[in-house]
From TrEMBL:
One of its GO terms (molecular function) is acyltransferase activity, transferring groups other than amino-acyl groups. Residues 345-496 form the N-acetyltransferase domain. PROSITE patterns: GNAT, NUDIX. The keyword Repeat does not apply. This is Nudix hydrolase domain-containing protein. Keywords: Hydrolase. SUPFAM superfamilies: Acyl-CoA N-acyltransferases (Nat) (SSF55729), Nudix (SSF55811).
Amino acid sequence: MPPSADAIAAVTRAHLDHHPAERAKLEPLLAMLATTPEPTNRSTLPAHVTCSAVVINRDQQVLHIHHKATGLTLCPGGHGEETDTSLLATAVREVAEEAGIPPEALCLVPQLLDQPVDIDVNDIDANPDKGEGAHQHYDFRFAFYLADAAMPETALQAEEVTGCEWRPFEQVASPSLRAKLQAAGLDGRPEPVNASVLIHDGVGRYLLHLRDNFDHIWAPGEFSLLGGGAEPGDGTLEDTLRRELAEEAPGLRLGPVEPLTVEWTTGADGLAVPIQTFTACWQGDPEAADLREGVLLHWFRPEDLHRLRLRDSTQQLIHQHTADLALDRARPKAAEPATAGPAGAVVRRAVQEDAAELTRLRLVMLDSAGITPPPGWADQCTAWFSERLNGDGRFAAFVVDVGTGRLVSCAVGQYDHRMPRPGQGPHVGHIASVATDPEHRRQGHARRAVTATRDWLAASGCGQIQLTASPHGEQLYRDLGFSDPTGPIPLTWSAP
């Protein structure tokens, strides 16, 4: 379905925001759009909308064709068709028809995206053979870069085109287009215009987004990474990513993100799309992300990806990231930053292999309280930790590791759903099993483990975090923002 008059008017007004001096020239266009139901139809007279493609190579040259009927040298372009869903789609189709350059050989210009670089008004002579009197074209010119550095082969439309040439900006045929290209600082080199993020939880799971099954969108009905296309107001691609996340899943709040790779794909309009992929660690609950677009957010392990409708490039990216994380963990602990803590200690999230050490530290804590577990209890505790460290998204332990194979401190966090309550998050968190080896106490290790656990619970949507303090640990927890409960008196029932 062709673009509506309202959609074309919105594009025109956005163009005028950047080029207010052209308002007098384009006011008649806006007036026409207010009264004309089919502005792209060539039978709409005395004026209608056309589109052109401004194809720019790495040498800052623009493709021109020699038009047979008029004898003019122009950028490829023409009238819209019923199958064109946007003005941009008309420009993409016309350059494929007239010059033989397919959509996948082109990509958007970062400075312009899907907005026209120029809108010009052309007086068209009468054409008795087509039954057309003299009229005007409002020509929307869209700029594209070549996706590859190599010049594409052209296959000219013999019935309409007699030849083609590449002209530098200063020799572009249209004066208005020439001026805009010279002022825009375009270099012909593609840059990412989309941003996505590979979200992992640090223990082997990856967050994937099941997209809506609509034909007009990219990758309909597939699992993919979260993200989307840049918009004119975005300052950086990280801004693009965070805006997209706020629109798609406002409850998913990422901490720091890092650039991972740039990959190319094909967009819904057939154009080549370079995507900047970031990576970030998040341990939240997808059900609390408040998904606004798409069908589902879910954690998956790499070994389950073959079961999903997922692009090969995304699957390969996840497997490579998993391998890179494994290599990173295998590096000697001496490679950890020296500033991480006293004597090279680092705080990290516990993995399944830490289960026995977590049990040992829990025994240290119980011993301090004068509690002696029965025989076999330690094995049961290790099995319990191992099970929860193997994919329980609502459980995490943070440990202080000095690289000796023996952990020196830990804190355990887990959270549950809570009944809805105004002003509170969807979960309530609990911190327990805070313990430090006696020989490593009074070095700030417990503070760092508890802080990491508290921050993880808060990032997971916990509006309240509970713990039980011993007299020795009370001041530490108060320093970290914990306070006496308010409201109803908390009471506990224990089975006899």
